[in-house]
Amino acid sequence: MARLELQGLCKGWDFPVIDRMDLTVEEGEFFVIVGPSGIGKTTLLRLVAGLEAPDAGKVLVDGRDITALPPYRRRVAMTFESYALYPHKTVAENIASPLRARKTDAATIAKRVQSVAELLRIDHLLDRKPGEVSGGQKQRTALGRTLVADPEIFLLDEPISHLDAKIRHELRQQFHTLEDLRKVATLYVTHDYAEALSLGDRIGVMGSGGLVDVGTARDLFERPANLFVAEHLGQPTINVIPARLESHADVLHLRANQGDLLLPVDPARAHLLAARNDGAVTIGLRPQFVRPADEMPAGSAQVTANVDLYEALGSTGILIADILGLRITALTSPERIFEHDTQVQLAVDTAALHYFDPRTGANLTLQTPGAGAATAMASSVASGISSRAEA
Amino acid sequence: MRGVSDMTATSSEISQTESGPKANSIDRDDPATFPDWFRARKARSNLIVARWVPIVLVGLPVLVLFGIVVYPTIWMFYHSVHDTNMMRLFQGNWSYIGFENFATVLGSDRFWDSTVHLLQYLSFGACLQVVLGTVLALILFELVKNNALRTLILILLVLPMMMSPSIVGVLWKFLLTPSNGAVNQALLNLGLISKHIEWFNSGISLWSIIVADIWNWTALPLLIVYSGRVSLPPAVYEAAKVDGASGWQVMRRITLPMLKEVIAIAFILRFTDAFKFVDLVYIMTSGGPAQSSELPTYIAFQRGIREFAIGEAAAYAIIIFAISAVIITLFLKYLKRVLKAQGIA
Amino acid sequence: MSEKNYRLVRTLLLIFLGLWTVLTLFPIYFKAITAFKSPAETNSTIPSFWPKEWHPENFVSVFAESSNFQSLVDSFVIASGNTLLSLFLGTLAGYAFARFPKQAGGENLAFWILSNRMFPPVAVLIPMFFLFDATPWGTDSRISLIILYLVFNMPLATWLMMVFFRDAPRELEEAAYLDGWTPLQAFMRITLPLVLPGMISVSMLCWIFAWNEYLFANLFVGTDVKTYTIVIPTFTHGSQTLWNLQMAFSLMAMLPPVALFILLRRYMVRGLSLGVVKG
Questions:
Q1: For residue A71, which residues of chain C lie inside 8 Å, CB to CB?
Q2: Is B163 in contact with C150 (Cβ distance < 8 A)?
């Protein structure tokens, strides 16, 4: 039971991979790190585990500096993306390995292995070799090996991304319910954003060099620190619209650079944008907040579009529409039908728009709290995403 | 259209952030991509073992090699420019004579004759064997369809390679005995010759050695190329079959190009071995008759260990060493490339 | 190429293969039957391709000379001793090269070690001869050959063990560290069992090379210690060569390498090709 702290952690090979990274994961916290592959997520875990030595910075557990400790002197457990099960040992021996390393007596080992195996529902496989069990069972074995270790820190590297959808779902639920995982500080790495949103107490979005944004699923969804975060969270992907600020009748408006789209700026944020002198801004518009006009409250900003493509997905419908050359993805309720090349009236919830700096990608309106109206929808959307990722 | 280009600019910017900086995008003057800590970082040891552990692990064999290879080689360099012989060596009173030993060696017909012998041997001991081995391996794999038969033939063909050179040398000396040897008798029986061939006469004896060596070592390229062919992915061949390529086309366009490295390795192995080759000379002819089947290495041993002309032997050794150093360096460069491509080194 | 021509070429190639097989086997066949012949028959003016009388007792009477059996023992001790030493040193260094390449001196050092196998030993043997002559054991000893054979076997063992260790996933060891095993424990419990097939093939190769070695032995030993390889060329009785005993003896001496090859040929190809061909 301990708190994990990273202070100014640096690591590079041919180029800087992790650049002055700070992070605190509280005891009992399930912290998910999400980011595209090759960005250095695994490197981060290896630094915490002690498999790599950092070029600079510190790793602390409960305030103790463990930066110089070798992995076998740290109480850190880690699952590997490849599972890394010992092929010449049985499932039981694999799980017992950390206990053996600490010279635990045989009776205790047997008891612990049995109880962990029962918990993970692999107790009937204990005598098999890893080569004789399925992928999901391998992952459970790897997980069992970390669970018996009773570590201070848990590191999970893409634990479920190579499994098929059904088992992935099952294991994911298990992560929610495993007591042991909930008692320590856990770092969980994944490239799957739905997984991250569903599992993490907090989520860190990793870009090049380190974390770009940290927060709860809702934070990241409603107040992304920048365009990178917004683009990578949420399904379907957020609409990114380069636009320009204009004043019409003293009300600040946005005009898309491409296509005929003119939207009023939410008055709550207008003052944050008014100062931008060149007027260029990149709008992020989540498909959830642009819908056919008849599904939205009256009075929303409206625009006429041409139906390009429509997919009914059961729980929702995805409409790809064309506004004179500007392609917009919109969500509809599932029972709707839209023919290709017909006109449709779309309505936009302007309160849910994100405004980014077109050059740096930084969110221009972070200072304001998220629009109340969007909040409820965001969380329902987040859960909708996770159910789709299973399919 | 301006909007479109804006859009592209935005997305490319994002994708750059996404893939992270790569080695070639580092700007050494820009602290954002080349921070101070990165500039200052040391080639740190890992946390797993102490820094001395790998050094000791590698140091043991390196020390042994210094004792049994490097030191002797330096010793040879030293004595190649001295008038060392047995007596002077034990009395410790050899003296510096510059490059006289080299002049003696390079000025002697014996050295140049043996060099010609070596070239003769290399072209047959290495080149011909690799060609033969490759052809035989591919015939065996492509045309013999029965698996058990294939394995049986492979094992039979490799048997000679498992024999000591002393067994091979004695066996061929026996087979090639001019008066009542099996080879002459068999050739007579088949009507290919009408009188015994004097296999160990001047001018033929080197060829007898080469024949024995081909018999002994063709199996190595054969085995390597055969195994290389076995591990080629069948999917490529299925595609070729669908395209209707003929057997010869498949061989020339697919098999041989894909086996290029494997054949090259077989060649390297045979070539470097052939450079070391000397044992059959000892057993079959002792370099004779009249030095007609001598190789430089043979002379070096003969002069050095049998006749104790150490200085001259050292000169021989250094010449051989220098030439092989060039060849081996080239080979290792190639090997490195092949292994890099395979991810081994 | 027409179907008919194709068949013709195919047939010709198969005939070539068959012919080559026959030519390869003929010396072995003749060796085998000679081993059963009487001394008179081996020296008759017209060699026979089938023994007139069978003398299987040749295989026993060759050991009437006790030094013949002793030479097999010497060869065995030298080959095994050298193999153990090569394997031990090669495993340690190969592991360091595979896991800590930078700290172990980098790939150029590994290639340098390998290059020692390729160099003609002439620059080494002559000085070593005088060096060993000055030691208490002298050149004519088992220990001198055990050490000398390291020249070609240790580089091979180091190189091949490096290749095999690279094949064994590093993550398994790392998982072991995280389980709390020290590097030595992880190496012994996890990595070593994984490279065991590799170690077996490396030791078999080293053993065969040492067992069959002739040149070094010929130059260094011969009185107190004799390897079977230098005994074979010396089967004479007076001025006559005892071909039948010689062949019987060498047939027995070549059995171990042949048996090892048949059993382990898959693994051995990897080693013979310096790791390039997976076999």
A1: 174, 177-178
A2: no
Q: Which of C128, C135, C134 shows the shortest CA–CA distance to C151?
A: C128
Q: For chain A, where are the E strands, in sequence order? A: 4-12, 16-25, 30-34, 56-61, 64-65, 76-79, 153-157, 185-190, 202-207, 210-215, 239-248, 251-256, 262-264, 280-285, 290-292, 301-312, 317-323, 326-332, 343-348, 354-356
Q: What's the pLDDT at B303?
A: 86
Residues of chain A with CATH 2.40.50.140: 236-366
Amino acid, single-letter form, for residue C224: D
Q: List helix spans (H) across C35-149.
A: 39-42, 58-61, 66-99, 106-118, 122-133, 142-148
Tokens read off for A186: 């856990």
Beta carbons of C175 and A78 less than 8 Å apart = yes
pLDDT in tens, A13-22: 778 888 888 9
Determine the residue of chain C that is closest to A152 in CA distance.
C178
ipTM: 0.89
Which CATH class, in words, describes the domain spanning A236-366?
mainly beta
Rounded distance between C-alpha atoms, residue A26 and residue A178, angstroms? 17
Q: Closest Cα to residue A121, out of A155, A144, A87, A152?
A: A144
Beta carbons within 10 angstroms of residue C189's beta carbon: 19
Tell me if residue B85 falls in helix, strand or coil.
coil
A4-231 homologous superfamily: P-loop containing nucleotide triphosphate hydrolases (3.40.50.300)
In this prediction the pTM is: 0.84
Identify the residue among B105, B146, B162, B199 best suited for mutation to test binding to C, counting C beta carbons within 10 A and taking the highest. B162
Structural domains in chain B plus CATH codes: 52-100 (no CATH), 108-342 (1.10.3720.10)
